[in-house]
Design goal:
alpha/beta, Arc Repressor Mutant, subunit A, 12 strands
Length: about 300
């Protein structure tokens, strides 16, 4: 069983597409197709279900993926151990949700790239559910998420930090710095993240509990856009505290509170328990843990 065929299988499973896998690996698509066919012939099973141009892991494919990742990681472990080097190298694949990338994660990534220049760092930005699924499949080495506490038997929680979700508005808005009732939100225009965002889901449930209908002006997955629009007086919103720190220091926005509407989440760094942890991964955890545990004060 050729290791290069196994690596191609992992990429096809990641992209669910032969051409994208081929482009990433620098192969012709026909080469990837042949490699997968050879694997399927050796195993005597179909690894993918093919529907149009997309492919999906079959049940046997999902089972084999765990072994494929173990074999690929075993190669990395052998190379790292035999070379006896203290310099991190290889490829590190990290999944991060969008709201964390440009705030909490930015200094982590910057320090890691400076201290580990021999590592190829691949960052996948996605939703919590998407990144957790990729981590469970072994297609990511670790994920940095914002969610309620995640307890899955196959995952290891490396670090957890509490995060408060704050309501905010333009400095001249009547709500600025005040505590208001949920009913007062009825006449306001909200600029919010997309519905698959967990703290957005928590807000929707709170408003349903208080029987308060909400007027949504825009749904956007880019938090910086939301902050800029709110600063211009186009509506109000709520985001994690780390997203708002810079705008608050610059007095572009002000926070306010809503009675009975406190939303808390946790920033969580997770890895798969069964995957070998490379030197690059361990260095990333060291840097991330130091940054995530640093005391931060958010002006309100």
């Amino acid at each position: 069983m050729e290791l290069r065929n196994i690596k191609s299988f992992i990429k096809v499973a990641e992209f669910e597409n032969f051409s994208k896998a081929a482009e990433t690996l620098g192969y012709a698509q026909s080469t990837i197709t042949t490699q997968i066919q050879l694997l399927e012939d050796e195993l005597g099973v179909s690894l993918f279900d093919r529907i149009g141009k997309k492919v999906f892991l079959s049940e046997k494919g999902r089972q084999f993926l765990a072994y494929a990742n173990s074999m690929a990681k075993l190669e990395e472990e052998a190379l790292e151990t035999i070379s006896n080097t203290e310099t991190p190298s290889g490829i590190l694949q990290i999944g991060i949700i969008e709201s964390i990338v440009f705030s909490t994660a930015e200094p982590i990534l910057e320090e890691f790239l400076l201290k580990c220049p021999a590592v190829t760092l691949k960052v996948k930005i996605g939703t919590n559910l998407e990144l957790l699924n990729l981590l469970e499949k072994g297609l990511l080495d670790a994920v940095l998420l914002l969610d309620s506490p995640i307890f899955r038997p196959e995952l290891e929680n490396i670090f957890t930090a509490d995060t408060q979700i704050f309501f905010f508005c333009a400095p001249e808005h009547p709500f600025a710095g005040k505590n208001i009732s949920p009913e007062q939100l009825k006449t306001e225009t909200f600029l919010l993240t997309e519905q698959n965002c967990n703290y957005r889901d928590s807000f929707d449930k709170l408003m349903e509990k208080h029987a308060v209908p909400i007027n949504y002006c825009i749904e956007c997955g880019i938090t910086s856009y939301i902050i800029d629009f709110v600063a211009k007086g186009m509506g109000i919103s709520f985001l994690p505290d780390y997203c708002l720190a810079t705008a608050l220091r610059e007095n572009k926005i002000r926070t306010f509170t809503v009675e009975g509407c406190s939303i808390q989440m946790k920033v969580q760094l997770l890895r798969h328990k069964q995957k070998w942890s490379s030197l690059a991964e361990r260095r990333f955890f060291e840097i991330a843990g130091r940054h995530l545990s640093a005391d931060c004060t958010f002006p309100h």
